[in-house]
């Protein structure tokens, strides 16, 4: 019985030493803290997805200085717009500077009800 009490701490120490060598530190960038193009696109998609929009495509409309970009967004069937994302150097995070999301008007068919008379 005393022999098992001696083996249990040795077993735990060796397992801890074996598994602790496999722990590597990875730097995980959140989209709010990533000013690259991919980070800003992911930031927009998460922001619009959390607010209930269905995104079809995100296109870079204009690139501006200081890691600021204007994105053209094509949402579900009748919506679209523009989103302006800026990078704050002091806080080191992306923020939504301006947005314009509007419904596209459906084209109405025009019927000609005038009757030609000879």
Task: Report on this structure.
With 118 residues, this protein is α+β, with helices and mostly antiparallel strands. It has a domain at 37-103: Nuclear Transport Factor 2, Chain: A (Roll). It contains 2 helices and 4 strands; from the N terminus they run H-H-E-E-E-E. The chain has helices spanning 2-20, 37-50; strands at residues 55-64, 68-75, 79-88, 93-103. It has a 4-stranded antiparallel beta sheet with strand order 1-2-3-4, covered by helices on one side. Strand 3 (79-88) and strand 4 (93-103) form a beta hairpin. The radius of gyration is 28 Å and the shape is elongated. The model has no long low-confidence stretch (mean pLDDT 79).
- Determine Rg (CA atoms, Å): 28 Å
What is the residue-averaged pLDDT? 79
Distance from first to last alpha carbon: 117 Å
- Helix residue percentage: 25-40%
Oligomeric grouping of the chains: single chain
User: What global shape is seen?
Assistant: elongated
Summarize the helix and strand pattern as letters.
HHEEEE
CATH class of the domain at 37-103, named: Alpha Beta
> Roughly what fraction of the amino acids lie in strands?
25-35%
Main sheet properties:
4 strands, antiparallel
Low-confidence stretches: none
Q: Work out the helix count.
A: 2
* Strand elements, count: 4
CATH topology of the domain at 37-103: Nuclear Transport Factor 2, Chain: A
Structural class: alpha+beta
Which sequence of strands runs across the widest sheet? 1-2-3-4
Give the name of the CATH architecture of the domain at 37-103.
Roll
């Amino acid at each position: 019985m005393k022999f098992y009490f001696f083996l249990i701490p040795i077993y735990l120490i060796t397992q801890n030493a074996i598994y602790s060598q496999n722990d590597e530190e990875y730097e995980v960038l959140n989209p709010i803290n990533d000013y690259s193009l991919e980070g800003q696109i992911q930031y927009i998609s998460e922001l619009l997805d959390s607010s209930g929009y269905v995104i079809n495509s995100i296109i870079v409309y204009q690139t501006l200085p200081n890691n600021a970009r204007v994105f053209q967004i094509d949402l579900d069937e009748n919506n679209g717009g523009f989103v302006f994302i800026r990078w704050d150097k002091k806080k080191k995070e992306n923020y939504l500077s301006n947005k314009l999301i509007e419904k596209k008007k459906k084209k109405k068919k025009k019927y000609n009800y005038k009757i030609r008379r000879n």
